[in-house]
Amino acid sequence: LKTTKMLVFLVFQMISVFFINFLRVLATTGDIGFTANLIHRDSPLSPFYNSFETYTDRMKNTLLNYGIGEYYLNYSIGTPKVKQSGIIDTGSDIIWTQCRPCSVDRKECFKQDAVIFDPKGLEKGAHGSSTYKGVSYDSPYCKALGDQGKFRVRPYLCGYQLKYTEGTTSKGDLAEESFAIGDSISLQGIVFGCGHRNKGEGYEHYATGVIGLGDSQLSLIYQLPIKRKFSYCLVDRSRRETTSKINFGSVGLDTKSSAVVSTPLVKPKASPTSSHYHITLIKIDMGGRAQLNYNDSTIPPLGNMIVDVASTYSYIHHQLFDSLKAKMERAVGYKAEKDLWEKGRICFKARKRFLPSITFHFDGGMKLTLPPENSYFTVSQKKNIECLTILGNEDPKDEAVFGVSGQANFVVGYDLELKRIFFMEKDCTEY
Questions:
Q1: Are 55 and 89 in contact (CB under 8 A)?
Q2: Which end of the chain is more exposed for a tag (fewer CB within 10 A), N or C?
Q3: Can you give the pTM of this predicted structure?
Q4: Is the per-residue pLDDT at 113 higher than 50?
Q5: Which residues have a Cβ under 8 Å from the Cβ of 193 and sit 6 or more positions away?
Q6: Tens of pLDDT along 117-128?
Q7: 31 catalytic, yes or no?
Q8: What backbone phi and psi angles, to 5 degrees, belong to 164?
Q9: Strand, coil or helix: what is 380?
Q10: CB-based contact 162:95 (threshold 8 Å)
């Protein structure tokens, strides 16, 4: 009898713990959610960390691979669970990972250190996944891909295909599967892309795919059964031994605090269905003196800049960039240095503290004065060369981008119901 009572008690405890975690995820009211760690690709905490790389090596890799994202989220997929690592991307509207069948030798996939997910157990010794299920071609999720992003697989299932601006591509089956984040967060029926044809040189040995956080029905934000709010606090590149944080279900800050600033999230007329998060840049000032308007127009176009957590740098209109370079050369007193690795960057032989501060002004009165570490990269410690983390768009049609370099050590909170984005300066090692 005692044994039976003990067994009942243990079962009750297990059910209670599960139910509490279940409520944490399924809460649909209030700022309730969960927090996960984000790991920088060059962090000692990363399984891809190369201890033999020098500071210069890491800087060069960052400068040359700035288009593929810097932070990834560890998660598990399937039943039984298979560990994966996805690059977080606020500019992507879909979750995808590499899947078998997929041949690295035939260049159907890029190389990855983690096990490639094999939901149907095609490889020798693989168990497959009991929770994997294909998505119907007539489902709302398939329709959300758009005509260019979907195709029919066999009679009734949905396939997806996508291409990012830096050249990465993925093509495969749209499916439902169980996801797990951390030890206690279990998510059922998450729709994702199971990629059988993937190309991404910068992804090799680093990640298995992408965690899309964009403004779209297929992104993780829209699929979680919580309010459409999320936030993150990214440590700067000098503190890579510390994890960054992402919070699902909360903007992560007190929006009424005087330390918090915000600006509207808007859809530009040119791309009203875009899954990117657009804000409106009004002007940039340098050292609190020289003010540079977005363009010659008295009214900048709404939604002229996207907030992108997968882009290392910020990008501005090429005319604005040229004006910024000229103003900086006058302020510093000499011409910019030639960049060591890439053309088109503004570099000076000077210490950060002697270079002018950069402030972005946005619609609604929001202004962000970037700390020196956000404004400048130390490209060469020996030669004492600092490069601006803002670049000019080569194509005038390209959108301006507010990248990771500008967002580090800020709590960045998104409220998709209010259609606002919030910023608060914060040491993210203490967040």
A1: no
A2: N
A3: 0.88
A4: yes
A5: 94, 95, 96, 97, 160, 162, 170, 172, 173, 174, 175, 209
A6: 999 998 877 789
A7: no
A8: -90, 160
A9: strand
A10: no
Q: Which of 42, 89, 93, 215 is catalytic?
A: 89
Task: Identify the band that residue 25 occupies on the pLDDT scale cut at 50, 70 and 90.
Answer: very low
308 is catalytic: yes
Among 68, 61, 56, CA closest to 201: 68
Domains and CATH numbers, the chain: 65-226 (2.40.70.10), 253-430 (2.40.70.10)
In this predicted structure, the answer to whether residue 16 has a pLDDT above a threshold of 70 is no
In sequence order, the β-bridge partners of residue 422 are 262, 413
Find the distance separating the first CA and the last CA of the chain, reported in whole Å: 49
Task: Kindly report the backbone phi and psi dihedral angles of residue 365, in degrees, each rounded to the nearest multiple of 5, phi listed first.
Answer: 90, 5
Cβ-count burial 89-108 (b if 16+ within 10 Å, e if not): bbbbbbbbbbbbebeeeeeb
Q: Measured in whole angstroms, how far is the alpha carbon of residue 44 from the centre of its chain?
A: 20
Torsion of CA 344, 200, 374, 429, to 10 degrees: -170
Which whole-number Å values give the CA distances from 223 to 99, 278, 407, in the listed order? 21, 21, 25
Phi, psi of 96, deg, nearest 5:
-150, 155
DSSP 150-171: EEEETTTEEEEEEE-TTS-EEE
Q: Which of 215, 285, 308, 415 is catalytic?
A: 308
Q: What residues contact residue 205 under an 8 Å CB cut-off, 6+ apart?
A: 48, 111, 112, 113
Provide the CA 101 distance to its chain's centre, in angstroms: 27
